[in-house]
Protein backbone atom coordinates (compact mmCIF):
# COMPACT_ATOMS: atom_id res chain seq x y z
CA UNK A 1 0.00 0.00 0.00
CA UNK A 2 1.60 3.32 -1.03
CA UNK A 3 1.70 6.47 1.09
CA UNK A 4 -1.18 8.13 -0.78
CA UNK A 5 -3.61 5.26 -0.18
CA UNK A 6 -6.26 6.02 2.45
CA UNK A 7 -7.66 3.13 4.50
CA UNK A 8 -11.40 2.80 3.82
CA UNK A 9 -13.28 4.46 6.66
CA UNK A 10 -16.41 6.46 7.40
CA UNK A 11 -15.60 8.44 10.55
CA UNK A 12 -18.50 10.88 10.15
CA UNK A 13 -20.94 7.96 9.72
CA UNK A 14 -19.52 6.29 12.86
CA UNK A 15 -20.03 9.51 14.79
CA UNK A 16 -23.56 9.87 13.42
CA UNK A 17 -24.46 6.33 14.53
CA UNK A 18 -23.18 6.96 18.05
CA UNK A 19 -24.80 10.41 18.21
CA UNK A 20 -28.10 9.01 16.97
CA UNK A 21 -28.14 6.25 19.60
CA UNK A 22 -27.37 8.75 22.35
CA UNK A 23 -30.34 10.83 21.21
CA UNK A 24 -32.72 7.90 20.67
CA UNK A 25 -31.98 4.52 22.23
CA UNK A 26 -34.80 2.96 20.20
CA UNK A 27 -32.80 3.58 17.02
CA UNK A 28 -30.78 0.45 17.91
CA UNK A 29 -33.50 -1.50 16.07
CA UNK A 30 -32.84 0.35 12.80
CA UNK A 31 -29.16 -0.39 12.25
CA UNK A 32 -29.28 -4.02 11.16
CA UNK A 33 -26.36 -6.24 12.14
CA UNK A 34 -23.89 -3.43 12.91
CA UNK A 35 -21.26 -4.67 15.37
CA UNK A 36 -18.40 -3.01 17.28
CA UNK A 37 -15.86 -4.65 14.97
CA UNK A 38 -17.26 -2.69 12.01
CA UNK A 39 -16.01 0.61 13.47
CA UNK A 40 -12.63 1.92 12.30
CA UNK A 41 -11.67 3.97 15.33
CA UNK A 42 -10.83 2.08 18.51
CA UNK A 43 -12.53 4.63 20.77
CA UNK A 44 -15.68 4.37 18.65
CA UNK A 45 -15.67 0.59 19.07
CA UNK A 46 -15.37 1.00 22.85
CA UNK A 47 -18.14 3.61 22.99
CA UNK A 48 -20.48 1.60 20.77
CA UNK A 49 -19.92 -1.51 22.89
CA UNK A 50 -20.83 0.37 26.06
CA UNK A 51 -23.94 1.87 24.46
CA UNK A 52 -25.16 -1.58 23.38
CA UNK A 53 -24.42 -2.94 26.85
CA UNK A 54 -26.49 -0.24 28.55
CA UNK A 55 -29.38 -0.44 26.09
CA UNK A 56 -29.46 -4.26 26.35
CA UNK A 57 -29.62 -4.05 30.16
CA UNK A 58 -32.62 -1.72 29.99
CA UNK A 59 -30.78 1.28 31.39
CA UNK A 60 -31.46 4.82 30.23
CA UNK A 61 -28.44 5.37 27.96
CA UNK A 62 -27.29 8.97 27.41
CA UNK A 63 -24.18 11.13 27.24
CA UNK A 64 -23.76 11.17 31.02
CA UNK A 65 -24.24 7.44 31.68
CA UNK A 66 -21.87 6.41 28.88
CA UNK A 67 -19.33 9.13 29.74
CA UNK A 68 -19.14 8.06 33.36
CA UNK A 69 -18.76 4.39 32.41
CA UNK A 70 -15.90 5.19 29.99
CA UNK A 71 -14.06 7.91 31.91
CA UNK A 72 -11.13 5.55 32.64
CA UNK A 73 -10.90 3.93 29.20
CA UNK A 74 -11.66 6.76 26.74
CA UNK A 75 -9.81 10.08 27.27
CA UNK A 76 -12.16 13.09 27.38
CA UNK A 77 -15.13 10.78 26.81
CA UNK A 78 -17.79 13.14 28.15
CA UNK A 79 -17.05 16.19 25.95
CA UNK A 80 -16.55 13.98 22.88
CA UNK A 81 -19.86 12.16 23.44
CA UNK A 82 -21.62 15.47 23.94
CA UNK A 83 -20.14 16.82 20.69
CA UNK A 84 -21.36 13.76 18.73
CA UNK A 85 -24.84 13.98 20.22
CA UNK A 86 -25.08 17.70 19.47
CA UNK A 87 -23.84 17.35 15.90
CA UNK A 88 -26.43 14.67 15.09
CA UNK A 89 -29.82 16.32 14.64
CA UNK A 90 -31.78 13.04 14.87
CA UNK A 91 -31.51 9.27 14.52
CA UNK A 92 -33.70 9.24 11.41
CA UNK A 93 -30.84 8.26 9.06
CA UNK A 94 -29.07 5.84 11.39
CA UNK A 95 -29.82 2.89 9.06
CA UNK A 96 -28.01 4.58 6.18
CA UNK A 97 -25.09 5.61 8.39
CA UNK A 98 -24.79 2.07 9.76
CA UNK A 99 -24.68 0.70 6.20
CA UNK A 100 -21.78 3.05 5.39
CA UNK A 101 -19.87 1.85 8.45
CA UNK A 102 -20.43 -1.81 7.45
CA UNK A 103 -19.42 -1.12 3.86
CA UNK A 104 -16.09 0.45 4.83
CA UNK A 105 -15.44 -2.43 7.24
CA UNK A 106 -15.90 -4.87 4.36
CA UNK A 107 -13.48 -2.86 2.23
CA UNK A 108 -10.88 -3.02 5.00
CA UNK A 109 -11.45 -6.75 5.37
CA UNK A 110 -10.90 -7.21 1.63
CA UNK A 111 -7.66 -5.23 1.81
CA UNK A 112 -6.52 -7.34 4.76
CA UNK A 113 -7.40 -10.58 2.97
CA UNK A 114 -5.60 -9.58 -0.22
CA UNK A 115 -2.54 -8.56 1.82
CA UNK A 116 -2.51 -11.93 3.60
CA UNK A 117 -2.95 -13.77 0.33
CA UNK A 118 -0.14 -11.79 -1.30
CA UNK A 119 2.18 -12.78 1.52
CA UNK A 120 1.03 -16.39 1.26
CA UNK A 121 1.64 -16.44 -2.50
CA UNK A 122 5.13 -15.01 -2.00
CA UNK A 123 5.93 -17.33 0.93
CA UNK A 124 3.73 -20.42 0.51
CA UNK A 125 5.63 -22.46 3.14
CA UNK A 126 5.51 -25.63 1.07
CA UNK A 127 1.91 -25.25 -0.06
CA UNK A 128 1.04 -25.80 -3.71
CA UNK A 129 -0.60 -23.16 -5.87
CA UNK A 130 -3.88 -25.06 -5.69
CA UNK A 131 -3.75 -25.05 -1.88
CA UNK A 132 -3.05 -21.30 -1.83
CA UNK A 133 -5.96 -20.76 -4.23
CA UNK A 134 -8.24 -22.81 -1.99
CA UNK A 135 -7.19 -20.71 1.01
CA UNK A 136 -7.99 -17.59 -0.99
CA UNK A 137 -11.42 -18.92 -1.91
CA UNK A 138 -12.13 -19.78 1.74
CA UNK A 139 -11.21 -16.27 2.90
CA UNK A 140 -13.33 -14.60 0.24
CA UNK A 141 -16.21 -16.97 0.91
CA UNK A 142 -16.12 -16.03 4.59
CA UNK A 143 -16.40 -12.37 3.65
CA UNK A 144 -19.23 -13.12 1.23
CA UNK A 145 -21.23 -14.79 3.98
CA UNK A 146 -22.01 -11.57 5.80
CA UNK A 147 -25.57 -11.61 7.02
CA UNK A 148 -27.93 -8.78 7.74
CA UNK A 149 -30.62 -8.98 10.40
CA UNK A 150 -34.11 -9.26 9.00
CA UNK A 151 -36.92 -7.74 11.03
CA UNK A 152 -39.51 -10.30 12.18
CA UNK A 153 -42.91 -9.84 10.59
CA UNK A 154 -46.25 -9.89 12.41
CA UNK A 155 -48.22 -13.05 11.60
CA UNK A 156 -51.27 -11.06 10.54
CA UNK A 157 -49.15 -9.11 8.04
CA UNK A 158 -47.49 -12.25 6.68
CA UNK A 159 -50.94 -13.80 6.29
CA UNK A 160 -51.90 -11.16 3.72
CA UNK A 161 -49.43 -12.52 1.17
CA UNK A 162 -49.89 -16.12 2.32
CA UNK A 163 -53.59 -16.00 1.41
CA UNK A 164 -52.48 -15.55 -2.19
CA UNK A 165 -50.41 -18.73 -1.86
CA UNK A 166 -53.40 -20.63 -0.47
CA UNK A 167 -55.47 -19.40 -3.41
CA UNK A 168 -52.83 -20.66 -5.85
CA UNK A 169 -52.93 -24.04 -4.15
CA UNK A 170 -56.72 -24.13 -4.43
CA UNK A 171 -56.43 -23.38 -8.14
CA UNK A 172 -53.75 -26.12 -8.29
CA UNK A 173 -51.15 -23.57 -9.33
CA UNK A 174 -48.21 -24.94 -7.43
CA UNK A 175 -45.48 -22.67 -6.10
CA UNK A 176 -42.98 -25.52 -6.40
CA UNK A 177 -40.88 -26.43 -9.42
CA UNK A 178 -42.20 -29.67 -10.99
CA UNK A 179 -39.67 -32.42 -11.68
CA UNK A 180 -41.67 -33.78 -14.62
CA UNK A 181 -42.40 -37.05 -12.78
CA UNK A 182 -46.06 -36.98 -11.78
CA UNK A 183 -45.87 -39.26 -8.71
CA UNK A 184 -42.81 -37.49 -7.35
CA UNK A 185 -44.43 -34.09 -7.84
CA UNK A 186 -47.60 -35.30 -6.12
CA UNK A 187 -45.65 -36.34 -3.01
CA UNK A 188 -43.73 -33.05 -3.06
CA UNK A 189 -46.94 -31.00 -3.28
CA UNK A 190 -46.26 -30.00 -6.87
CA UNK A 191 -42.46 -30.07 -6.79
CA UNK A 192 -39.65 -28.80 -4.53
CA UNK A 193 -40.15 -25.28 -3.23
CA UNK A 194 -37.62 -22.55 -3.90
CA UNK A 195 -34.99 -22.41 -1.20
CA UNK A 196 -34.99 -26.20 -0.83
CA UNK A 197 -31.94 -28.45 -0.76
CA UNK A 198 -32.87 -31.82 -2.29
CA UNK A 199 -30.53 -34.78 -1.81
CA UNK A 200 -30.68 -37.64 -4.32
CA UNK A 201 -28.71 -40.57 -2.96
CA UNK A 202 -27.80 -43.90 -4.52
CA UNK A 203 -25.11 -46.51 -4.74
CA UNK A 204 -22.93 -46.51 -7.87
CA UNK A 205 -24.63 -47.69 -11.10
CA UNK A 206 -28.15 -47.16 -9.75
CA UNK A 207 -28.78 -44.27 -12.14
CA UNK A 208 -28.64 -41.15 -9.95
CA UNK A 209 -26.84 -39.12 -12.66
CA UNK A 210 -29.33 -40.30 -15.28
CA UNK A 211 -32.29 -39.43 -13.05
CA UNK A 212 -30.91 -36.01 -12.16
CA UNK A 213 -30.25 -35.26 -15.85
CA UNK A 214 -33.77 -36.43 -16.73
CA UNK A 215 -35.16 -34.04 -14.11
CA UNK A 216 -32.94 -31.23 -15.43
CA UNK A 217 -34.18 -31.82 -18.99
CA UNK A 218 -37.78 -31.80 -17.80
CA UNK A 219 -37.40 -28.65 -15.69
CA UNK A 220 -35.41 -26.73 -18.34
CA UNK A 221 -38.47 -26.59 -20.59
CA UNK A 222 -40.00 -23.90 -18.36
CA UNK A 223 -37.21 -22.90 -15.96
CA UNK A 224 -33.51 -22.06 -16.00
CA UNK A 225 -31.26 -24.94 -14.90
CA UNK A 226 -27.53 -25.18 -14.15
CA UNK A 227 -26.10 -28.73 -14.22
CA UNK A 228 -22.72 -29.02 -12.47
CA UNK A 229 -21.04 -32.31 -13.37
CA UNK A 230 -17.77 -33.09 -11.60
CA UNK A 231 -17.57 -36.66 -12.89
CA UNK A 232 -18.72 -36.52 -16.52
CA UNK A 233 -17.68 -34.13 -19.26
CA UNK A 234 -20.19 -31.90 -21.04
CA UNK A 235 -19.97 -34.09 -24.16
CA UNK A 236 -20.95 -37.18 -22.16
CA UNK A 237 -23.92 -35.34 -20.68
CA UNK A 238 -25.00 -34.25 -24.14
CA UNK A 239 -24.72 -37.86 -25.40
CA UNK A 240 -27.12 -38.90 -22.64
CA UNK A 241 -29.43 -35.97 -23.34
CA UNK A 242 -29.56 -36.87 -27.05
CA UNK A 243 -30.28 -40.51 -26.20
CA UNK A 244 -33.08 -39.63 -23.79
CA UNK A 245 -34.70 -36.86 -25.83
CA UNK A 246 -34.37 -38.53 -29.23
CA UNK A 247 -34.94 -42.13 -28.16
CA UNK A 248 -31.61 -43.12 -29.70
CA UNK A 249 -29.65 -45.95 -28.02
CA UNK A 250 -26.76 -44.40 -26.08
CA UNK A 251 -24.27 -46.91 -27.48
CA UNK A 252 -25.06 -45.80 -31.02
CA UNK A 253 -24.77 -42.12 -30.07
CA UNK A 254 -21.32 -42.78 -28.60
CA UNK A 255 -20.08 -44.66 -31.67
CA UNK A 256 -21.85 -42.35 -34.13
CA UNK A 257 -23.26 -45.36 -36.00
CA UNK A 258 -26.84 -44.19 -36.43
CA UNK A 259 -29.53 -45.62 -38.67
CA UNK A 260 -31.82 -43.33 -40.65
CA UNK A 261 -34.56 -43.36 -37.98
CA UNK A 262 -31.89 -42.73 -35.32
CA UNK A 263 -30.58 -39.73 -37.26
CA UNK A 264 -34.11 -38.39 -37.21
CA UNK A 265 -34.18 -38.92 -33.44
CA UNK A 266 -30.84 -37.14 -33.14
CA UNK A 267 -32.19 -34.19 -35.14
CA UNK A 268 -35.30 -34.04 -32.98
CA UNK A 269 -33.19 -34.16 -29.78
CA UNK A 270 -30.96 -31.36 -31.05
CA UNK A 271 -34.01 -29.22 -31.80
CA UNK A 272 -35.38 -29.79 -28.31
CA UNK A 273 -32.02 -28.98 -26.70
CA UNK A 274 -31.99 -25.65 -28.53
CA UNK A 275 -35.23 -24.75 -26.77
CA UNK A 276 -34.08 -25.69 -23.26
CA UNK A 277 -32.73 -23.15 -20.79
CA UNK A 278 -30.04 -25.58 -19.64
CA UNK A 279 -26.45 -24.68 -18.76
CA UNK A 280 -23.72 -27.30 -18.34
CA UNK A 281 -20.46 -27.10 -16.41
CA UNK A 282 -17.93 -29.94 -16.06
CA UNK A 283 -15.29 -28.39 -13.78
CA UNK A 284 -14.00 -31.07 -11.37
CA UNK A 285 -13.39 -30.74 -7.61
CA UNK A 286 -15.68 -27.75 -7.13
CA UNK A 287 -15.45 -25.72 -3.94
CA UNK A 288 -18.45 -24.10 -2.31
CA UNK A 289 -17.20 -20.76 -3.59
CA UNK A 290 -17.08 -22.16 -7.15
CA UNK A 291 -20.71 -23.26 -6.91
CA UNK A 292 -21.75 -19.88 -5.53
CA UNK A 293 -19.89 -17.99 -8.24
CA UNK A 294 -21.27 -20.09 -11.11
CA UNK A 295 -24.83 -19.95 -9.75
CA UNK A 296 -24.71 -16.19 -9.29
CA UNK A 297 -23.24 -15.73 -12.76
CA UNK A 298 -26.03 -17.71 -14.45
CA UNK A 299 -28.69 -16.02 -12.32
CA UNK A 300 -27.39 -12.58 -13.26
CA UNK A 301 -27.14 -13.36 -16.99
CA UNK A 302 -30.02 -15.76 -17.64
CA UNK A 303 -32.02 -16.12 -14.46
CA UNK A 304 -31.75 -19.32 -12.40
CA UNK A 305 -34.31 -21.65 -10.84
CA UNK A 306 -32.55 -24.99 -10.31
CA UNK A 307 -28.98 -26.19 -9.74
CA UNK A 308 -28.15 -29.90 -10.10
CA UNK A 309 -24.84 -30.92 -8.53
CA UNK A 310 -23.23 -34.28 -9.39
CA UNK A 311 -22.07 -35.12 -6.76
CA UNK A 312 -21.38 -33.95 -3.17
CA UNK A 313 -18.49 -36.25 -2.28
CA UNK A 314 -16.45 -34.99 -5.26
CA UNK A 315 -16.40 -31.43 -3.93
CA UNK A 316 -13.32 -29.94 -2.28
CA UNK A 317 -13.65 -28.25 1.09
CA UNK A 318 -11.97 -26.79 4.13
CA UNK A 319 -11.82 -28.67 7.43
CA UNK A 320 -9.81 -30.99 9.63
CA UNK A 321 -11.51 -34.08 8.19
CA UNK A 322 -13.92 -35.06 5.45
CA UNK A 323 -16.93 -34.94 7.77
CA UNK A 324 -16.25 -31.31 8.66
CA UNK A 325 -15.69 -30.43 5.02
CA UNK A 326 -19.01 -31.95 3.94
CA UNK A 327 -20.81 -30.31 6.86
CA UNK A 328 -19.60 -26.93 5.63
CA UNK A 329 -20.54 -27.80 2.03
CA UNK A 330 -24.08 -29.00 2.82
CA UNK A 331 -24.71 -26.01 5.09
CA UNK A 332 -23.42 -23.68 2.39
CA UNK A 333 -25.60 -25.26 -0.31
CA UNK A 334 -28.71 -24.85 1.84
CA UNK A 335 -27.80 -21.20 2.49
CA UNK A 336 -27.20 -20.64 -1.25
CA UNK A 337 -30.60 -22.13 -2.14
CA UNK A 338 -32.30 -19.68 0.22
CA UNK A 339 -30.14 -16.73 -0.81
CA UNK A 340 -30.80 -17.15 -4.56
CA UNK A 341 -34.35 -18.46 -4.06
CA UNK A 342 -33.63 -21.59 -6.10
CA UNK A 343 -33.86 -25.36 -5.72
CA UNK A 344 -30.58 -27.27 -5.42
CA UNK A 345 -30.52 -30.98 -6.31
CA UNK A 346 -27.34 -32.43 -4.82
CA UNK A 347 -26.42 -36.02 -5.61
CA UNK A 348 -24.79 -38.11 -2.90
CA UNK A 349 -23.04 -41.45 -2.71
CA UNK A 350 -24.16 -43.90 -0.05
CA UNK A 351 -21.94 -45.67 2.47
CA UNK A 352 -20.77 -49.23 1.92
CA UNK A 353 -23.32 -50.49 4.45
CA UNK A 354 -26.05 -49.64 1.96
CA UNK A 355 -24.77 -52.37 -0.39
CA UNK A 356 -26.42 -54.97 1.84
CA UNK A 357 -29.82 -53.27 1.78
CA UNK A 358 -32.55 -53.15 -0.80
CA UNK A 359 -33.95 -50.05 0.90
CA UNK A 360 -31.40 -47.31 1.73
CA UNK A 361 -31.82 -45.28 4.91
CA UNK A 362 -30.93 -41.71 5.90
CA UNK A 363 -28.00 -43.03 7.93
CA UNK A 364 -26.51 -44.43 4.70
CA UNK A 365 -25.64 -40.97 3.36
CA UNK A 366 -21.90 -41.16 2.98
CA UNK A 367 -19.36 -39.33 5.18
CA UNK A 368 -21.66 -36.82 6.85
CA UNK A 369 -24.77 -36.76 9.03
CA UNK A 370 -25.15 -33.02 8.39
CA UNK A 371 -26.34 -33.77 4.84
CA UNK A 372 -29.47 -35.36 6.30
CA UNK A 373 -29.99 -32.44 8.70
CA UNK A 374 -29.55 -29.66 6.12
CA UNK A 375 -31.67 -31.28 3.41
CA UNK A 376 -35.34 -30.44 3.00
CA UNK A 377 -35.96 -33.52 0.88
CA UNK A 378 -33.97 -36.76 0.72
CA UNK A 379 -34.67 -39.31 -2.03
CA UNK A 380 -32.97 -42.62 -2.75
CA UNK A 381 -33.05 -44.42 -6.09
CA UNK A 382 -32.59 -48.20 -6.21
CA UNK A 383 -32.77 -50.65 -9.13
CA UNK A 384 -33.10 -54.22 -7.96
CA UNK A 385 -31.87 -55.62 -11.28
CA UNK A 386 -28.36 -54.23 -10.60
CA UNK A 387 -27.92 -56.76 -7.77
CA UNK A 388 -30.43 -59.37 -8.90
CA UNK A 389 -30.54 -59.94 -12.68
CA UNK A 390 -33.42 -62.42 -12.24
CA UNK A 391 -35.62 -59.94 -10.40
CA UNK A 392 -39.31 -59.49 -11.22
CA UNK A 393 -38.60 -55.73 -11.27
CA UNK A 394 -36.62 -55.66 -14.51
CA UNK A 395 -36.80 -52.25 -16.15
CA UNK A 396 -38.13 -50.67 -12.96
CA UNK A 397 -36.63 -48.49 -10.24
CA UNK A 398 -37.75 -47.65 -6.73
CA UNK A 399 -37.55 -44.05 -5.58
CA UNK A 400 -37.74 -43.87 -1.80
CA UNK A 401 -38.60 -40.44 -0.37
CA UNK A 402 -37.05 -40.75 3.10
CA UNK A 403 -37.37 -37.12 4.24
CA UNK A 404 -39.84 -34.52 3.08
CA UNK A 405 -40.45 -31.25 4.89
CA UNK A 406 -43.21 -30.26 2.48
CA UNK A 407 -45.26 -33.41 2.08
CA UNK A 408 -45.57 -37.14 2.63
CA UNK A 409 -42.91 -39.81 2.93
CA UNK A 410 -43.63 -42.61 0.47
CA UNK A 411 -42.25 -44.72 -2.38
CA UNK A 412 -42.53 -44.13 -6.12
CA UNK A 413 -42.13 -46.73 -8.85
CA UNK A 414 -40.36 -45.53 -12.01
CA UNK A 415 -39.61 -47.17 -15.33
CA UNK A 416 -35.98 -47.25 -16.48
CA UNK A 417 -34.82 -47.85 -20.04
CA UNK A 418 -31.09 -48.40 -19.81
CA UNK A 419 -30.38 -48.09 -23.53
CA UNK A 420 -31.71 -44.52 -23.41
CA UNK A 421 -30.60 -43.82 -19.78
CA UNK A 422 -34.14 -42.59 -19.29
CA UNK A 423 -36.46 -42.72 -16.31
CA UNK A 424 -40.20 -42.17 -16.66
CA UNK A 425 -43.41 -42.66 -14.69
CA UNK A 426 -44.16 -46.36 -14.32
CA UNK A 427 -47.43 -47.52 -15.84
CA UNK A 428 -49.65 -50.02 -14.08
CA UNK A 429 -49.39 -51.64 -10.68
CA UNK A 430 -46.17 -52.83 -9.09
CA UNK A 431 -45.41 -56.39 -10.31
CA UNK A 432 -45.78 -59.08 -7.66
CA UNK A 433 -42.90 -61.50 -7.02
CA UNK A 434 -43.19 -64.75 -8.93
CA UNK A 435 -43.74 -67.59 -6.51
CA UNK A 436 -42.53 -70.99 -7.65
CA UNK A 437 -45.30 -73.47 -6.81
CA UNK A 438 -44.50 -76.97 -5.56
CA UNK A 439 -45.82 -79.70 -7.86
CA UNK A 440 -47.37 -82.76 -6.28
CA UNK A 441 -48.60 -86.20 -7.30
CA UNK A 442 -48.45 -87.16 -10.95
CA UNK A 443 -47.54 -83.56 -11.95
CA UNK A 444 -44.33 -83.82 -9.94
CA UNK A 445 -43.16 -86.73 -12.14
CA UNK A 446 -43.77 -84.92 -15.46
Automatic annotation (TrEMBL):
Residues 170-430 form the SF4 helicase domain. Coiled coil: none annotated. It is an enzyme of class 5 (isomerase). Keywords: ATP-binding, DNA replication, DNA-binding, Helicase, Hydrolase, Isomerase, Nucleotide-binding, Primosome. Belongs to the helicase family. DnaB subfamily. The keyword Transcription does not apply. The main replicative DNA helicase, it participates in initiation and elongation during chromosome replication. Travels ahead of the DNA replisome, separating dsDNA into templates for DNA synthesis. A processive ATP-dependent 5'-3' DNA helicase it has DNA-dependent ATPase activity. Pfam families: DnaB, DnaB_C. The keyword Hydrolase applies. Its EC number is 5.6.2.3. CDD domains: DnaB_C. Gene3D superfamilies: DNAb Helicase, Chain A, P-loop containing nucleotide triphosphate hydrolases. This is Replicative DNA helicase. SUPFAM superfamilies: N-terminal domain of DnaB helicase (SSF48024), P-loop containing nucleoside triphosphate hydrolases (SSF52540). It catalyses: ATP + H2O = ADP + phosphate + H(+). Residues 425-446 are annotated as: Disordered. One of its GO terms (molecular function) is DNA helicase activity.
Amino acid sequence: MNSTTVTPQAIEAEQAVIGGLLRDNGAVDWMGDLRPGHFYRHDHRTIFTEILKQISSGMACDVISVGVALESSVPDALPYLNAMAQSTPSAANIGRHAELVRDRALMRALLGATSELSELALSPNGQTGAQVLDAAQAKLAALAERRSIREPVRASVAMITHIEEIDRRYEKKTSGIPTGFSQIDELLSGGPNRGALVILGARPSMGKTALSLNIALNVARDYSVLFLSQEMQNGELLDRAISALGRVPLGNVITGQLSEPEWQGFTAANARLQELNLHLDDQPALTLLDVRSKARLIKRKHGLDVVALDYLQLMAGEGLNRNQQLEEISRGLKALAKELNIVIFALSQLSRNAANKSRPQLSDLRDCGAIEQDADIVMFVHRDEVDNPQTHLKGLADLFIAKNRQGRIDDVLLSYEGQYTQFSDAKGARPAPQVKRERRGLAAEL
